Amino acid sequence: MKKFSLITLSVLLFVMISSAQSAKKFYKTGVVFMESEKYQDAVDNYTKSLDINPNYMKSYVARAKCYVKLNKAQEAFNDYVRASILEPKEEDYTYEASRIALDMKSYEDAIKYADKSLALDKKMLSAYHVKIRSLYYINRYDEALETANKAVDVKRTYGTYLDKAEMLFAKKEYKSAQDIYQLAINKEPNEITAFIGIANAYYQQGMYDQAVNAANSALRQDQRSKDAYWIRAFAYHKKMDYMSAINDLSQIIVLYPNEDYVNDVLYKRGEIYYDFQQNNNAINDFTRIIDKDPKYYQAYFKRASSYESIHNFDKAIDDYEKLDKLGLTDEAAITMLGAAHVRLFELKREDNKPVIVITEPSIVNKKIQIIKGIEIQTISGRVDDESEIKSLKINGVEVAFDSTSKKHEFFTDVIVKEKSEITFVASDIYDNVRTDKYGIQRTEVDPPEISLVTPYASDDGQIYLESESPSLYIEGTIIDASKIASITIDSVIASYIPTTINPSFAATISIANKSKVTLIATDIFGNTTTKEFILNREGAQIAANNPMGKTWVVFIENSDYKTFATLNGPTKDISLMKSALSKYVINNIITKRNMTKQQMQKFFSIELRDMVVKNHVSSIVVWYAGHGKYLNNSGYWIPVDGKTDDEFTYFNITALKAAMQSYSSTITHTLVITDACESGPSFYQAMRGGDDDVRDCSDWKATKFKSSQVFSSAGYELASDNSQFTKTFANTLIHNPNSCIPIGSIVKKVKSAVAKNKQQEPQFGKIDGLPDENGTFFFMRK
């Protein structure tokens, strides 16, 4: 048993010796790499050494140093901690751990390991320094000062005085800090940090001249000292030596243009420019800051203040509003934002009253138009103002604005039952108040009715043009229960009397290159009618070739009588006339034969009227051939069913005139020719008006102005089968050598021929009761 134990122990001892030798071998290799500054290779070998022997302390310390070189602070800290555990009485390892923890801002760890070092060596000043700084950074100033006092008690050095002075400064004990800084300066007159510190202490005590002198001392040691220029600039600023302060800050910017703190220097210089009333320079500095860092909120606030100083209020408002959009959260920023809101509110202050705009319902003469019978009226509109609107009340009731609109729009129901007025009160955030009162006018909702008088418009909405004129005169009437607010024709305002109910209107408009015209009529309550009319140029094209326009001829041929003598003449006469008219521009010939009284009444009252209107006939000739009668001062055409002893069965000439009056407005020229026995005198007497002039074809007024004419055979004798009247009429047309012939020329020829046959002279004149503007009828040759 003893023999076995000795063997086992020998083996274990051999393994341990071999392991130690291998760990040492890797350690030495690591040292070689470390001396060659190949720190990662060194780390790899130290790690292999520790893999073999985890307690090989030298490898921990060496690897920690390499980690420091490689900027791997956490790994270095861990190795020093491990080394301090393996060698708990070695204060250097705990100190290095505390120093690295301070660099990593792990202040509690730094304090912990600094205390461990001080426990091993109460006079270790470097450990005091680490602990003081760590306590300072976590705002434990009393403990930091207590530790600094212990360090001074250990040894009065420049460093211990400097630490104590800075802790006193942190506790705002500036006079005591000043005294200790002076002790530090006395120890090391060539060290700049204490001069910077004492300059700050002087500054905090309001001793600006001393602060400047201390900063000067610092600059004599280092002319590039940013901190010295910085504190001296602050002191100059307090002394109101603005140019010196600006020069010091400018020097920092020149020396260190690319440093992160340049924006802070620009900001301070901008503040001083502002105090120096050099606002444009201040604006330039704040703008440079914002260009580099758009979230530097203080620059927006100060630039806005600078803009205010030069009365550029629009840009000041813009900066305050930008500040509001940065989403600031820290306390100082929120405080500044509150100040910005106050300034913004004041900058936007105005004394204009809000404007209340009612969009629905309409308002006429300060009266809201409300339909009769409505008890609750929906009112919509908006409130226009430069500022935010604080409130809107309608009849004392608060009205909410549309949350989706930025225009202060509202839409609300208002009780109007038994109300005579509605009151609107709007106020903005500056307490500018507008009060508007409107009466209530009960209205109707029927739209106006539009009717054209001239030109004639068909039932299907067509206007038939009679010429190619580029302009058109339109006249019409409006039917509406209310007054009319506006009448427009293709955006041309028509003339009318606004105070008249159912007014007439007129306007001349351009129709060049147009296919339609649009009439819009709106009454005072906003009821609107829009009516379109198609422009039909067919008549204009006809008029271009025939100044008489579309011309129709209607022949009434009554010959096969039931109780009167049968006639052969009408058939021959009408055939002769058709032959004669074949040489003239006649657009349509209608022949009606052997008509009864009922047919004659229907034809002239309805059928002919509708055809003339629908086809936009300009000129019409009605030729009657058949028996006629003159009884009791009344003339008649005899229908084929007329009875010789029954006057009631005859077609009264007065009825003919009445029927033709219904469509006389659409006809320019009307010519009635009657070749009937016994009807001549009565026809003429019923319809006459003198007209014996013969018009010339070159007389354009004769074709353009209306005419209503009658030419009657006027015979008392029985109808003849050989009518000189018709024969001469036809021959005159046939043998006419000119391009046209007026009815007056034909009348003269017929009268002369009839007189030679010793017959009663035919009669020619105007038709009483039908429109006549002294025009006349022309037959136009093809």
Q: From the alpha carbons, calculate the radius of gyration and give it in angstroms.
A: 59 Å
Q: Which shape, going by the Cα principal axes?
A: rod-shaped
Which percent band covers the strand fraction?
A: 15-25%
The level of helicity is 40-55%
CATH level-1 class of the domain at 546-780: Alpha Beta
Structural class: alpha+beta
Roughly how many Å apart are the termini? 158 Å
Give the number of helices: 27
Question: What is the third-level CATH name, the topology of the domain at 546-780?
Answer: Rossmann fold
Q: What does this entry show, briefly?
A:
This protein is of the alpha+beta class and 782 residues long. The protein contains 27 helices and 27 strands.
How would you portray this structure in words?
There is one protein chain. The protein is an alpha+beta fold and 782 residues long. Among the domains are: 72-151, Tetratricopeptide repeat domain (Serine Threonine Protein Phosphatase 5, Tetratricopeptide repeat, Alpha Horseshoe); 355-443, Immunoglobulins (Immunoglobulin-like), CATH 2.60.40.10; 449-518 and 530-540, no CATH class; 546-780, 3-Layer(aba) Sandwich (Rossmann fold). The chain has 27 helices and 27 strands. Strands 18, 19, 20, 21, 22, 23, 24 and 26 form an 8-stranded mixed beta sheet that branches. Strand 16 (516-523) and strand 17 form a beta hairpin. Helix 2 (39-52) runs antiparallel to helix 3 and helix 6 (107-120) packs antiparallel against helix 7 (125-137). It is rod-shaped. The N and C termini lie far apart (158 Å). Residues 6-18 and 684-689 have low confidence and may be disordered.
